[in-house]
Every structure is written in structure tokens, then in C-alpha cells.
Amino acid sequence: MAFYLSFKHSNLFVRIIYTRNSQACEFYPHTCYYRFKLMRKVDFLVIGSGIAGLSFALKAAKFGKVLIVTKSNEDESNTKYAQGGVAVVVDKSDSFEKHIQDTLIAGDGLCDESIVEIVVKEGPERIQEIIDYGINFDKNPAGVFDLAKEGGHSEHRVLHYKDITGYEIESVLLKQIHQNENIEILTHYFCLELITQHHLGKHVDKSSKDINCYGIYAFNTESNNVEKILANVTVMASGGAGHIYANTTNPIIATGDGMAMVYRAKGKIRNMEFIQFHPTALYHPGEYPSFLISEAVRGFGGVLRRRTGEEFMYEYDERGSLASRDIVARAIDNEMKKSGDDFVYLDITMRSKADILKHFPNIYAKCLSIGIDMTKDFIPVTPACHYMCGGVMVDEDGKSSINHLYACGEVSSTGLHGANRLASNSLLEATVFAHRIFLSAIENYKQNIIPENIPEWDDKGVIQSNEDILVTHNLRETQKIMSDYVGIVRSDFRLDRAMRRLYLLYEETEEFYKNNKVSVKLCEVRNVIQVAYLVIKSAMQRKESRGLHYTTDYPKHAKELIDTII
Fold first, then answer.
1. Considering the chain, what is the average pLDDT of its residues?
2. What is the mean pLDDT of residues 20-48?
3. DSSP strand E in 168-302: where?
4. Positive or negative: CA dihedral 259, 260, 266, 268
């Protein structure tokens, strides 16, 4: 919103344009305009409004000004759609050692054991903090937490609120955010690029050791202007990239923006080949994104069946339907290929209607809306892209390879998940690393000296496009390439074909981007293509099958454990 003040001065008509939070002024002699340029500078900048970003913001606000930037509504994040809950050791029958071991087994040898120990052991204190904010995890009549069990877990240890745990967490944290005067949220701001020395004319590449982050350029979708936001500390908490595939449980905002931005800024990205397909998304053709049928349904006794009614998971793993997600997703994929069907069935009819309604009211209502009564009927399910186990490489304090840039949540690669994420470990990881980033950031945030000559966004020579259909087409084609060639089962032939086809889309999109004004659709498809490239390149480099990366050309583990770093 802009305010205008006009007056005469020395027979000249002068107009002052004042825009909210303006901090600079320019005089235009030919037009006789003064214009206040919009520029913001804060102590802590958070990109994203999920549990990771909000948890950090609430703590950092005690030490300085916090600005949260999100590209959609403030509550739109992957956190909001998390059904299952938070895996954490709170019961006496459980132990840190058991949780650590379950995580390591699920990660198929690639977890960083020190990180696993940090997250598991620091988890209870961090979860108690969000409980203190007012989050109401379900309890039994005796007042004890009603702990669920999910795939890959040896004990009941998943805290939950019915089947909308993420929504509950998001709502409570946002309430706390709004009560804090030191935190500001900018909604409908699309982050375009990280600001580094590159924008000052200095050469920066992957070998550079001293890359500094000074903030971001962000596209204000309401004013259609690109704004410069400077910060001593930037926390990337932008979520995942489910929409690189045609079938995903992620909200439509999950286009890998943070990963793509960090890669373009020459930051290090790790293990992007490990993409978790949730085994049980509701099969409902035409619905996008797919509705998730929580793993907690299988933890509650649900079993996977063929069309004939036969249970099949014990043919693949001794844990049956509660095997880890990588194993279950591959088993379902194999069953669908053998039968020619587009789905298998999930059966929870052995539980009482009262129990189902108590634990899964949202899932029950969704199924009923399409004519399926899960208390009587089998639920048709199919795997869908769900979670990125790779991402921006960070250390134990959440520091990326770029100075003053941290990453937290699904956008990051901490070493916790390895080659496959254990169910409900992600929300736990987010709270632990948000805290560790906070501790590091408050020690270092004053050390970032931001140059005064950082330029404004340069859009000289670009035009306003009326060819959005080209952008939409390239997005759909990218998603089809990834789904057809880089899915649950891969091969060298498929990956090579995917890379060649993706390169053509990359060239087209980059050319379009250089010549046209920025738009959310254009920037999202650019990021989707960028992340798809990272996934394919990483998959091509891993000459083995491990966890979520299964290739028919290398069906066994390699002798040497390595991370894929790009």
C-alpha cells in the first residue's frame, strides 16, 4: 500500500510516494518524483511458516527483530497436513536406545549416528516446550499420552492429536507468534534468490569457502514488485518438493524453492536421490494433491490386501504391513505391476466403528465423502511422493555451507534420516534443530556485516508474458518425466532418458525466465526443474540400491557408505 503527498516547490510539482516500511528516498528530476524505496532489514529472517520456522522464530524474538516470509497463507505448510504425529520417547517401557536403533535400521546404514543420538535424546525437552505452548496431544482416560505405533517402530511412541496432529501444532504455534510483538509475518511473498557476494559482482562458485548470505530478493505478489530484504541471519525453513512428481500428498506450495535457491547460490545439497513415497495415499483419480491415509491406520491394526482379499506384506518383510515405508512402498508398487491394478487395499474393518471415529475422524470423513465407509469397506491406496530425505546440507547446528544461512525442517539434510525416514521423526527433527539453530544464531548474528551497496532487483529489458500455458506445460511435463522414470524403481536407462528430456525443459524455462517478468508460476516451475535435476543427478551417482533409492542395475548395497553431495 502506498501513500502520496503532492505539493508545489519553486514552480515544480513534487510528488512524494511513501510505501510501508520504506527506508530510502530517491528524487527523480525529470518527473519531479521523490520515491521511497522499500527495503527491510532485520536481525533474523525466516523463510517458511511450518513447525521448523515458527519454533525458531519464537525463540529468536527474545533477542531481536524476526521477519517470517511465506509464499502463501501463514498456515500453509507441510506441517499443517501431517496426520500421524511426533515420535518421541516419553513412556517408561521405551528407551532412547530403542528409538535410535529403529531410526538407524530405517535409514539403511546411511544415518549419521551422532545426529540420530542428538535428535532422539534432545527430543523430549523440545516436545515438552511445544506442549507448554498449548498443544493438546491425545490422552487416554487415565490422563496418560495415547501413544501410537507406526511402521518401523519397535514401541508405541508417537504423540498425536486425532489424525490432524500437524494442524494442531501449526495453529498453536501461530497463536504464539501473533502474541509476540517482535515477530512480523509477510504472507504471499515469494522468495526469488538468496543475496550473496555474487550480487556485488564477486565471482562465487562451489569451491568458494567464504560465501555470505545477506538476505533475499522476494516477490510481493500483491504489489507485483520485487523487494530487498536484508538480515543478519537467514533460516531456510521452506519445506519439501513433492510437486516434482505428478502424484504427491504435499500441498501445492511444495515446489522445492529453498533447495533450488541454495543450489543456485552455490550452497551444498546432499542425498537428493532419497525421496520417500508414502505407501498409502487414497486412490481417487483426478484429485490433486492426493489425500494421505496416515501410517497410524496400519499402526492401529490395518493390513494391506490384494484385490482378492489376501494379505501380502509378510511375503516381503517379517513386520508385515508395519515394515518401514521404503519396503512397503516397493511391495505395493510390485503388487500393482503384477496385477495391473492402480491400487491395493488397506483394511481396518477389524476395529470397531467407535475406535475408528475416535482416532481417525478426518480420514473417516474424507473416505465417506467419496463413498467409502472405512468401518465396513477396504480403502483403495497407492504410493505417492511424500517426503524429501535429502536437501540443504547442514551440520549439527543447522549451519549450511553458506555463512549466516541455516536450514531446518524438510528442506534440510541433517543426517538424521539417512536413506529412509522413520515415520514421525520429521516433526521431532524440526523442533530439535530449530533450537540448535537458535543457540548458534544468537551467538553469531551480529557478526554479519551487510554491505551498503547491495543492488535492487534488476528487471531491465523484461516483458510481461501472456504465455502462461508454456509454463504450465513445462511443469506437467517435468512431473510426468519424474513419475515415469525416477519413481520407486529406477534404472540407468530411465535416469538417462529423464535427464536428457529434462535438459530441454530447463533450457526453455531459463530462456523464458530471462526475458519475462517474474511470476509465481514461472519461478515455481523453474525451481521444480532445478530440484528434479538434483534428484536425477544424485540418483545417477549412486551405484547401489539403498533405502528409498532402488535401481534394477545395482540391486545390492555398495561396500562403501557414501553421501551424494552436489
1. 92
2. 62
3. 183-186, 189-195, 215-220, 225-236, 269-270, 275-282
4. positive
Nearest residue to 479 (alpha-carbon basis) of 192, 255, 240: 255
CB 100 within 8 A of CB 112: no
Confidence at 39, pLDDT banded by 50, 70, 90: confident
pTM of the model: 0.90
Which of 407, 403, 416 shows the shortest CA–CA distance to 434?
Answer: 407
Domains of the chain in sequence order: 2-41 (no CATH), 66-231+250-274+389-451 (3.50.50.60), 280-386 (3.90.700.10), 468-551 (1.20.58.100)
Question: What are residue 473's phi and psi, to 5 degrees?
Answer: -60, -45
Cβ atoms 502, 483 nearer than 8 A: no
Q: State the alpha helices, DSSP H only, in 418-515.
A: 426-444, 468-485, 492-515
CA distance 153 to 85: 13
DSSP H stretches of helix in 183-309 = 257-264, 295-299
Pair type for strands 405-407 and 225-236: parallel
Q: In the chain, pLDDT over 90 holds for what percent of residues? A: 85
Residue 126: band (very low, low, confident or very high) from pLDDT cuts 50, 70, 90: very high
pLDDT digits (tens, 9 = 90+) for 354-363: 999 999 999 9
Nearest to residue 240, comparing CAs of 108, 104, 117, 384? Answer: 384
Q: How far apart are CA 54 and CA 43, in angstroms?
A: 15
| Diameter of the chain measured on Cα atoms | 90
Q: What is the pLDDT, as a whole number, of residue 260?
A: 98
**325 a catalytic residue:** yes
C-alpha cell at 517: 517478468
pLDDT beyond 50 at 11 = no
Residue 345 pairs in a beta bridge with: 305, 380
Query: Residue 443's Cα: distance from chain center in Å?
Result: 27
What is the pLDDT averaged over residues 79-98?
Answer: 90
Look up residue 95 and give its three cell numbers: 528407551
Catalytic residue among 35, 126, 157, 325: 325
Place of cell 465407509: 373
The set of residues, in sequence order, having a beta carbon less than 8 Å from that of 291 and lying 6+ positions away, is 249, 281, 282, 284, 366
